[in-house]
Amino acid sequence: MATPQTTSMTLEDASVPAGFDRRHAWLITAMIVAFMLINYADKSVLGLAAVPIMDELGISNSTYGLISSSFSILFSLSGLVVGFVSARISSRALLFTMALLWAVAQLPVLIVAAVPTLIAGRVLLGAAEGPAASMSMHALYKWFPADRRGLPSALQISGAALGTLIAAPVVTWLITAFGWRSAFAALAVISLVWSLVWWRVGHDGPYGQARPGSSGSSGSSTGTASTGTSGASGPQHMREPRLPYRELLLNGTVIGSIASAFGASWALAISHAWLPAYCRTELGMTPGGAATLISGISAFSFVLLLAVSPFADALRRRGVSSRWANGAPQGIAVVTAGLAMASFSFAGDGWPHILLLAVAFGGNAIVFPLHYMTTAAVVPTHQRGALFGIVAATGTLPGLVAPYLTGHLLDTADSQSAGYASSFLLSAAVMFLTGLIALLCIRPERDARRLGLTPDGSDQAGASKPLAQ
Asked: 220: Cβ–Cβ under 8 A, 6 or more apart, which residues?
């Protein structure tokens, strides 16, 4: 006869999938949030130091735009390549190597401050950061079953908002107090420290991908993957098909997810490269004022991330389709941000302009966790890392184009204000179109059935059901 204590334990355990190590899962989440924070601090440091770098080196807007765009020369390609090898190399080793390379990438400009060394450092940094978002999300998914990924995913992406929120004032202070080189040196040290800590704690979790037809789950440290009671890595995954990548990439959900990421990444690339300079030269802000505004936009993104992704998870557990819980918000966010960007020229100065800046550059942050969730719903788990790499590589291509194009428009326009206006209108058009594609195309349940996967997405097979009741 069950005692009240054992009955209570049984009821409590029923809502927790087998193999779920809550404590270590959240430790990994904290490490990955820090990883993304450093990632986005590395990306934003060049933009925050743009004015003093341009003044000291005497470079034009187009040359600075070229330096900024050089970050993306290998960004997408490395994300693609690492996505395919992620099935054979542990997430622990991948993220450790990336962080070490981030530290190395800051060194050339500390030795010789010149355009070639700036470009060399940014190219290496882009190559090392290209797989960062997709592979850290892949590592995170190995520690959480499918119906518990909303909040961890939001926190992972929120590392980007926190990176800018914290980096903008801190890096600006370093630049102002000690010169712009000090910011690069500080980021090199921080990346090195993170990599050493990660090597100690960053082991792969029990919800890693299983190879088709295998007798166990790779990367499982608990031994529960081969049992029928396991969460997302049970027998269902052993029977998953290996689908042609052409078939995976040409379904509407993946196309729509890539489109939403493309539109959001266009705004992100403009923000990293040119928003600090725009605030100082066009809005007449001091370095501290510009940093405060950028931090405020990041805080807005952070709040949205913490609110929308868990809310989408709650909707899914209540039976709302993934199309409306995870897909539609992506398209709506990008379209809305594009409309805000198109309104800059008509808003005048003051608070209306500031609010539009917040919506245009911060309102589409929710796209990044959600587009991984919709993509994961239509791919076999053992192919998820590779497809994440492809989606990330394609969705982040704006980083290669948008910064240089903006610099070119600034140098060729009748005035700098006209150049910014042209850049923002072009960005708005790109964002409106990609957001509309996302709204029309993302239908995970339909596409999962067409691919022969479970209606809720291949990686959700066998997931714990009591939370949905």
From this structure: 19, 206, 208, 226, 233
